[in-house]
């Protein structure tokens, strides 16, 4: 067993409970509350309340949900009781917290027969450390000290470390917390060194999160803030890399947040994620990140501003999806083109479908096989105050597929040109917000609407010929979207016919826009641009 230094004395009288750094902070989940835990009701990851009972079944998995299991085993819900004890001085909260933790330790020995393997996975271990450390400020018992030693041993094992990932950040926070709590400089030093390396991999110099799901940037930012707080409270210097890249994350979060206040739901990102943090206002309306994102808007601070995202960059990893060359579009206060979304981390066929190209607004090369985890490149970009154009390419289908995207502001228009090398044909798909219903589909023009609001899709070839024969699927194989956790809604997906080139024009707010293409020029309601979009 690893040796600890001296322990801090437990709190004195109930009416003089000291608030501790380990217990205070924003590490607690929103649910359940301390009163709910006292009643034995656990509401985790948005699922219905689970009746805990006096005698806890630590093998419980009432919803067969991996996220529920991990959060249950994190014991953060137990930590709410200790925090409530610190805030109120009411001893019953601490007594129940101690009872829960002691029972957990007795029934979940590391490596013991009958202990569920997920109990000692890296993330439950790191997240569980915080409530146990919090409890240790008020409970001086050998079983608790010994359990934290086991946690520290696993946290310091390089074979279990998740470098370059938010799990690694949580592991470092946990190890540093134990090291600082018990005077183990070796653990605190290791955590600081590893955290610096992980931050360099997880947050690039531009401030972009490398995990391929922007919503995780909010989590990483909050955890790095907490890590720096622990370092300072432990009289340790915060490495400059950690401080600077944490600060740079704020710009990335701002750019990845849509005008409606929700983050662009890319990768494993729900459409209901609100940053709920002060990011400030970046200097630029449009930003291309080497990590594989373009985010653009008409103006900051205007809910009806147009907004778009474009994906490219390194091949899929961590929380990413196969969404390269994909776009989303928001205009006139409405979601227009949406991503397939994030359903859950369950190992289901639908979860894997949401990660596939078919769940995103992307082009496919007809007759060619898709190659997963292929990187893509932004090869050209033109920035104007009222119009931007981008060209991207990759070999995800063995041959070069190229997508050019133009976004016009003021008169809102998005235009997208898709081609493939070697004369190969391409087809594409366009997933519209679930609120839209199909109004008409004829002659290469599809009109969708929601009440008085309409949006029109028109398709041409690069030589300006109309391309007709679009199919619209709602439900079935393609017509789905998951805007929130564990939700699945039917939505309309417009699927193009195959063609050697496809020029798609999206016009929000109009059911009969004047769209024409001739002589290599496209005109939409008086707005003109080249058919190659540059």
TrEMBL record:
One of the Pfam families matching this protein, by short name: Hepar_II_III_C
Key words of the record: Lyase, Periplasm, Signal
Superkingdom of the source species: Bacteria
UniProt subcellular location: Periplasm
Molecular functions per Gene Ontology: lyase activity
GO CC field: periplasmic space
Domain Heparinase II/III-like C-terminal: 313-492
SUPFAM superfamilies: Chondroitin AC/alginate lyase
Gene3D superfamilies per the UniProt record, alphabetical: 2.70.98.70, Chondroitin AC/alginate lyase
Main location: periplasm
Domain Heparin-sulfate lyase N-terminal residue range list: 47-279
Name under which the protein is recorded: Uncharacterized protein
Species per Swiss-Prot/TrEMBL record: Nonomuraea turkmeniaca
Native organism taxonomy: Bacteria, Bacillati, Actinomycetota, Actinomycetes, Streptosporangiales
């Amino acid at each position: 067993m690893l040796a600890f230094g001296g322990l801090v004395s437990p709190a004195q009288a109930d009416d003089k409970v000291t608030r501790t750094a380990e217990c205070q902070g924003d590490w607690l989940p929103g649910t359940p509350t301390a009163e709910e835990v006292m009643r034995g009701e656990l509401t985790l990851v948005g699922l219905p309340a689970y009746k805990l009972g006096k005698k806890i079944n630590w093998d419980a998995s009432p919803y067969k949900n991996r996220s529920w299991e991990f959060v249950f085993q994190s014991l953060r819900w137990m930590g709410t009781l200790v925090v409530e004890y610190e805030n109120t001085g009411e001893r019953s909260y601490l007594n129940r917290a101690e009872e829960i933790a002691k029972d957990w330790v007795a029934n979940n020995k590391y490596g013991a027969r009958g202990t569920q393997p997920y109990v000692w996975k890296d993330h439950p271990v790191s997240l569980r450390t915080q409530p146990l450390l919090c409890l240790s400020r008020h409970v001086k018992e050998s079983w608790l000290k010994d359990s934290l030693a086991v946690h520290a041993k696993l946290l310091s094992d390089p074979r279990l470390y998740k470098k370059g990932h938010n799990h690694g950040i949580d592991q470092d926070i946990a190890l540093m917390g134990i090291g600082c709590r018990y005077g183990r400089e070796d653990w605190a030093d290791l955590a600081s060194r590893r955290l610096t390396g992980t931050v360099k991999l997880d947050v690039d110099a531009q401030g972009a999160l490398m995990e391929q799901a922007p919503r995780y940037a909010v989590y990483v930012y909050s955890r790095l803030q907490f890590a720096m707080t622990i370092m300072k409270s432990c009289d340790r210097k915060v490495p400059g890399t950690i401080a600077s890249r944490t600060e740079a994350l704020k710009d990335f979060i701002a750019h990845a947040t849509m005008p409606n206040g929700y983050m662009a739901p890319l990768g494993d990102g729900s459409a209901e994620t609100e940053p709920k943090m002060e990011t400030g206002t970046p200097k630029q309306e449009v930003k291309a990140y080497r990590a594989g994102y373009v985010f653009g808007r008409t103006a900051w601070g205007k809910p009806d501003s147009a907004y778009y995202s474009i994906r490219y960059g390194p091949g899929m990893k961590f929380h990413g999806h196969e969404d390269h060359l994909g776009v989303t579009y928001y205009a006139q206060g409405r979601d227009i083109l949406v991503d397939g979304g994030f359903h859950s981390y369950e190992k289901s066929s639908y979860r894997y479908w949401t990660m596939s190209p078919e769940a995103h607004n992307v082009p496919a090369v007809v007759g060619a096989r898709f190659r997963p985890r292929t990187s893509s490149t932004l090869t050209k970009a033109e920035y104007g105050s009222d119009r931007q154009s981008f060209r991207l390419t990759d070999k995800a289908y063995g041959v070069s597929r190229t997508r050019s995207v133009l976004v016009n502001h003021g008169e809102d228009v998005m235009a997208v040109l898709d081609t493939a090398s070697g004369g190969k044909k391409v087809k594409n798909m366009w997933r519209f917000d679930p609120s839209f219903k199909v109004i008409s589909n004829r002659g290469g023009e599809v009109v969708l609407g929601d009440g008085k609001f309409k949006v029109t899709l028109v398709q041409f070839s690069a030589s300006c010929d109309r391309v007709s024969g679009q199919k619209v699927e709602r439900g079935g194989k393609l017509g789905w979207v998951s805007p929130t956790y564990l939700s699945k809604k039917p939505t309309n997906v417009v699927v193009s016919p195959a063609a050697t080139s496809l020029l798609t024009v999206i016009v929000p707010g109009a059911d009969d826009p004047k769209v024409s293409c001739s002589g290599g020029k496209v005109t939409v309601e008086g707005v003109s641009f080249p058919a190659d979009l540059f």
